[in-house]
Design brief:
alpha/beta, OB fold (Dihydrolipoamide Acetyltransferase, E2P), about 35% helix, 6-stranded parallel beta sheet, 5-stranded parallel beta sheet, 3 domains
Length: about 425
């Protein structure tokens, strides 16, 4: 059977789509090439969330098409958000592309691959109305850690975001399907799952007419062999006392929450189309820290948003300094065609946006230096990703820092260590004997 050379760009949610497509292809007899080219088919799953991601996707496609011309690949198939965003432009610009497949059609990958150069394949960009269990998966992460997608699409109306247009409305997987996926992952050696969706806290609203994330978390704690459950992409307005209570009462759930806030100024939040306010955000943080005093809070902020004044930005800096987040992603606003934000007044020059990004990054650097110094001398549990590098429950895979551990240990093992030093987001530790 033909061999497949995969490339996955963008977020962990996109990676789960790649894993599903590869798993289905492998089950049908295709060989997944884990080394360097050549291969019969190159399959690239693209990202198109912001302009820089679009540029990266186009650059990677051009590389693959050049390699195809040189004989490294027989065919090139393009999948993912770029197909959804710019299908017509993509096919016109690159007639050498053999097939395309959109974000909701992973389960149809064999049909697309088998169709050869039939780029008009009718399943290529359809978005399904329901989200079902991933029956096949080819792991693209470390053997002991996996991302578990619990929903797709989004019903929020953030003015800066293209996701609802690219991925459609919110669609939850049934709880039983998610539990079965988790059990299959554990059977394959996974000990940590990170729950992902565009908005995990909206889980269940479409299936059950109510938010059911707390129920899902409870159900996942019953999966034998699953050690860590990590919650990503939470919206602050839907972080309920029930969710916090479940996190506090179950030691399998990491004391960690990824909760993108985007800003703290009420004026900017309103222009962003966010439902949260400064008061609500601060209330949620206090609630989380009351019941989970050691919780690691990760968040994202957009700086230089249209209409962001010097006063708004100063408020954001003061907020980051005071509330001491464990991890922060900071992004200069990117004007995206087709979004509500693109039509707003008050767009700021690129230099101002970039300066504010650097300025807030410096604030967070001071915060993390203070926080990590407090970790020195503490004993913590780590999950080893590599022989000399692991993570505590306070670090998510891929996006956060971790712990350099001595002496070396087996990847996938848990160990108790003592923190001996810190350098930015990287801690140093020795194994406790």
């Amino acid at each position: 059977m033909p061999s497949i050379f995969p490339i996955s760009l963008g977020c962990p949610k996109n990676l789960t789509d790649t894993e599903e497509m590869l798993g289905i292809l492998q089950a049908r007899g295709y060989r997944i090439a884990t080394g360097d080219p050549p291969a019969d088919i190159a399959l690239i799953n693209t990202c198109a969330f912001i302009g820089d991601a679009v540029k990266e996707s186009y650059a990677e496609i051009e590389k693959l098409l050049a390699m195809k011309k040189q004989g490294y690949f027989g065919r090139v198939i393009v999948a993912g958000c770029l197909v959804q965003r710019e299908k017509a432009k993509l096919l016109k610009k690159y007639p050498e592309i053999d097939s395309i497949i959109g974000v909701g059609s992973a389960k149809n990958i064999v049909e697309v691959v088998d169709s050869g150069r039939d780029r008009a394949c009718p399943v290529s960009t359809a978005i399904p109305r329901v989200l079902t269990r991933q029956e096949y998966r080819f792991p693209a992460t470390l053997p002991h850690s996996a991302y578990l997608k619990i929903a797709d699409g989004c019903n929020n109306s953030c003015a800066f975001c293209t996701i609802p247009r690219l991925r459609g409305g919110y669609r939850s997987k049934p709880i039983n399907d998610i539990i079965q996926e988790a059990e299959c992952l554990v059977a394959g050696g996974v000990r940590e799952v990170s729950l992902v969706a565009q908005d995990t806290t909206s889980y269940g609203i479409d299936l059950y007419s109510e938010y059911r994330l707390a129920d899902l978390l409870k159900a996942l704690t019953g999966v034998q062999g699953l050690e860590w459950i990590r919650l990503m992409y939470a919206y602050p307005e839907r972080v309920t006392p029930e969710i916090v209570q479940v996190m506090a009462e179950n030691n399998k759930i990491c004391h960690y929450l990824d909760m993108p806030l985007q800003h703290v100024s009420d004026k900017v939040l309103a222009r962003m189309g966010r439902e949260s306010t400064e008061k609500l955000i601060k209330q949620k943080i206090k609630l989380l820290r009351k019941f989970l005093p050691d919780i690691a809070l990760r968040t994202n902020f957009i700086v230089g948003y249209p209409g962001e004044s010097k006063t708004d930005f100063a408020k954001l800096k003061d907020f980051v300094e005071e509330y001491e987040f464990s991890k922060v992603g900071i992004f200069a606003y990117s004007r995206e065609k087709g979004t509500k934000a693109a039509g707003l007044t008050g767009h700021l020059p690129k230099a101002v946006r970039e300066d504010r990004c650097a300025e807030l990054t410096e604030v967070q650097s001071r915060v993390i230096d203070r926080k990590n110094k407090k970790m020195i001398g503490k004993s913590v549990k780590v999950l080893m990703d590599m022989p000399s590098f692991g993570r505590t429950q306070y670090e998510a895979p891929d996006i956060d820092g971790g712990v350099n551990v001595t002496p070396r240990l087996t990847p996938g093992a848990f160990a108790d260590v003592k923190i001996t030093g810190a350098d930015g987001y990287i801690l140093k530790a020795e194994i406790l004997t």
